[in-house]
Automatic annotation (TrEMBL):
It comes from Dendrocopos noguchii. Gene3D superfamilies: ATP synthase, F0 complex, subunit A. Belongs to the ATPase A chain family. It is a multi-pass membrane protein. NCBIfam families: ATP_synt_6_or_A (TIGR01131). It is found in: Mitochondrion inner membrane. The chain crosses the membrane at residues 12-31, 69-89, 101-118, 138-158, 170-189, 195-223. Keywords: ATP synthesis, CF(0), Hydrogen ion transport, Ion transport, Membrane, Mitochondrion, Mitochondrion inner membrane, Transmembrane, Transmembrane helix, Transport. Component of the ATP synthase complex composed at least of ATP5F1A/subunit alpha, ATP5F1B/subunit beta, ATP5MC1/subunit c (homooctomer), MT-ATP6/subunit a, MT-ATP8/subunit 8, ATP5ME/subunit e, ATP5MF/subunit f, ATP5MG/subunit g, ATP5MK/subunit k, ATP5MJ/subunit j, ATP5F1C/subunit gamma, ATP5F1D/subunit delta, ATP5F1E/subunit epsilon, ATP5PF/subunit F6, ATP5PB/subunit b, ATP5PD/subunit d, ATP5PO/subunit OSCP. SUPFAM superfamilies: F1F0 ATP synthase subunit A. The lineage of its organism: Eukaryota, Metazoa, Chordata, Craniata, Vertebrata. It catalyses: H(+)(in) = H(+)(out). GO terms for cellular component: mitochondrial inner membrane; proton-transporting ATP synthase complex. This is ATP synthase subunit a.
Length: 227
């Protein structure tokens, strides 16, 4: 029973083909077909509006120099949003529940923001490690604390995304198992549990979108500190 709860974090296969690959082809069906016009239908209008809204929200904390990162951050936001939502479909797999993938996204981008600050304004970037007006006896301890908090940022990004999605999926699995087990014993309780499951699924959709936004927003804030 315990193993079955965690089987959902292994990619299911059909005829040797991981189903996550098939599910990730679904967003490609939403892409507009090539034409002579930029916007061909209402779906293209909705997509353009969503991308424009996401880009504006991500670029708000950044100054003009940080707008060069608009394509990277917006693409990352759409990628995480698609993966998180597709992982809620039956017989699919959520890659962002794996810490290795989240760290593979968080660490290079965090390192890029750090190297950008060290290249463009090394004095200001290193100045973040020591607040102004610090008493002399506290300087070594504060430098050590600030350096540790700086180095732990990519780990916090990856663990936050992994933990939130994993907890939500496990909770859905537990409640759905309880609802199925109680169906023959206590039908009324099973129906109430199913209603709770539906509400939890709606909440998990919101969590999937919020966590994708938080991940990219924190990266944009780290970028703002270094530009």
């Amino acid at each position: 029973m315990n193993l079955s709860f965690f089987d959902q974090f292994a990619s299911p296969c059909l005829l040797g083909i991981p189903l996550i690959l098939l599910s990730m082809l679904f967003p490609a069906l939403l892409l507009p077909s090539p034409g002579s016009r930029w916007i061909t239908n209402r779906l293209s209008t909705l997509q353009s509006w969503c991308i424009d809204l996401i880009t504006k929200q991500l670029m708000t904390p950044l100054n003009k120099n940080g707008h060069k990162w608009a394509l990277i951050l917006t693409s990352l936001m759409i990628l995480l949003l698609s993966i998180n939502l597709l992982g809620l479909l039956p017989y699919t797999f959520t890659p962002t529940t794996q810490l290795s993938m989240n760290m593979a996204l968080a660490f290079p981008l965090w390192l890029a923001t750090l190297l950008t600050g060290l290249r463009n304004q090394p004095s200001a970037s290193l100045g973040h490690l020591l607040p102004e007006g610090t008493p002399t006896p506290l300087i070594p301890a504060l430098i050590l604390i600030e350096t540790t908090s700086l180095l732990i940022r990519p780990l916090a990004l990856g663990v936050r995304l992994t933990a939130n999605l994993t907890a939500g999926h496990l909770l859905i699995q537990l409640i759905s198992t309880a609802s199925a087990a109680l169906l023959t014993i206590m039908p009324t309780v099973s129906i109430l549990t199913t209603i709770i499951l539906l509400l939890l699924t709606i909440l998990e959709v919101a969590v999937a979108m919020i966590q994708a936004y938080v991940f990219v927003l924190l990266l944009s804030l780290y970028l703002q500190e270094n530009i």
